[in-house]
Amino acid sequence: MTDTGVVAGVSVSHTTASVEDIEATQTVDVATLVSDLLDRDGVEEALAIQTCNRAEAYVAADDAADARAALGQFSPDVRESAVRHLDHEASIRHLMRVAAGLESLVLGEDQILGQLSDAGSVAREVGGLSGGVLDDAVSKALQVGKRARAETRINEGSVSLGSAAVELARRETDLAGATALVVGAGEMGTLAARALDASPVAQVVVANRTLSTAQQVATDLDSEATAVALDDVGAVVADADVLIAATGATSPVLDDETLAEAGETLCIDLGQPRDVVPDAGDERVVVRDIDDLQSVSGEARDRREAAARAVEEMIDAEFDRLLDDFKRKRADDAVSAMYEAAERTKQRELEEALAKLEAQGDLTDEQRETVAGLADALVGQLLAAPTKSLREAAAEDDWSTIHTAMQLFDPEFDGPPATAEGANTPEGSEGAPDVPQHALEHVSND
């Protein structure tokens, strides 16, 4: 794939969708989704991101229509208003915003940067990122995300869903001397346990399917902490005042039976899909989910608005720089094709000229070098002006000129590079200019 590809994206996230919408979108794992997208017509690269508050997919294809079509069935069971469709430039900018934490429920949270990096690694393992335009966009997004956190205060303070959940719990119940139960010992559960450790709770119980993992999380806490197996949650839930669930299970792990003895318990469900059945337990059990964290994250957002503006400016600059890089690469494709065609012609004519000179008498090595140097100089001087023109054409989005050059010099080129908006030719154009017949004849034997 050349760097003339077009990116398309689709997003179902907390900004427009409910927990149910996001859950309905995540029907297969990331690796499977990327592989499925790569099988679609025209798709050269693919990436998928699945977190507790977003499900997104991106593809790159030489034709914008192919890219859009590949994502057409990404979320068939979700209401249309919950789905955001992103064109080439919007996809690239959105990836940068996601990596920087500007699209997160908790503004500036750090976890998304690792999640995007992991998504990129999975995509590469199955051939989804292969050095093309989408690969470059992901790399730039990760770079921007790191800069945003290193150069601004975007992630200052409470910056994870785990810490936001503890803040919500503090507002709805008295944490002083309370017992907290964390169900799940993965990254999100660990963050929640650490946030509880920094709160006034007296005891933290960590439950996990693998007991040794729960024990490791509990051991790292300063508060009194114990670990239990996931199957034993029902036996310890009666002592819990607060329960935070964050497992990686594909179906709820806490239901009526598990919470039958819970009593007065605040359950905060961070799982995606859900970890807690919404109406589990009796009337004394209060269940909150990710949607209920909006108020907490909104206040964090207000505190970080100044940093967010600085990050927006950073994204603007890096976005423009990346698009310029793409344009240069597109021009370089045409320039390379032009020089390769000229080199073939030069070499053929040089060999013929040297053969004729040899027939007139032996040539010395110096004479051969002189003739070869003359041929190289002619090619360089003749192509200097068109090289400059092609790079200027790319900078000005004049893709019809690039198209004509590629037709002239690249025998395998069969279509124009798509523009950022996905069109094959500039707006208002009926197509690339006709290629002069004599020019085609000149390169037809190469």
TrEMBL record:
It comes from the Archaea. GO terms for molecular function: glutamyl-tRNA reductase activity. Residues 10-152 form the Glutamyl-tRNA reductase N-terminal domain. GO terms for biological process: protoporphyrinogen IX biosynthetic process. The keyword S-adenosyl-L-methionine does not apply. NADP(+) binds at residues 184-189. Possesses an unusual extended V-shaped dimeric structure with each monomer consisting of three distinct domains arranged along a curved 'spinal' alpha-helix. The N-terminal catalytic domain specifically recognizes the glutamate moiety of the substrate. The second domain is the NADPH-binding domain, and the third C-terminal domain is responsible for dimerization. The lineage of its organism: Archaea, Methanobacteriati, Methanobacteriota, Stenosarchaea group, Halobacteria. This is Glutamyl-tRNA reductase. Transmembrane segments: none annotated. Residues 167-296 form the Quinate/shikimate 5-dehydrogenase/glutamyl-tRNA reductase domain. Homodimer. Pathway: Porphyrin-containing compound metabolism; protoporphyrin-IX biosynthesis; 5-aminolevulinate from L-glutamyl-tRNA(Glu): step 1/2. SUPFAM superfamilies: Glutamyl tRNA-reductase catalytic, N-terminal domain, Glutamyl tRNA-reductase dimerization domain, NAD(P)-binding Rossmann-fold domains. Belongs to the glutamyl-tRNA reductase family. Substrate binds at residues 51-54, 104, 109-111, 115. Gene3D superfamilies: Glutamyl-tRNA reductase, N-terminal domain (3.30.460.30), NAD(P)-binding Rossmann-like Domain (3.40.50.720).
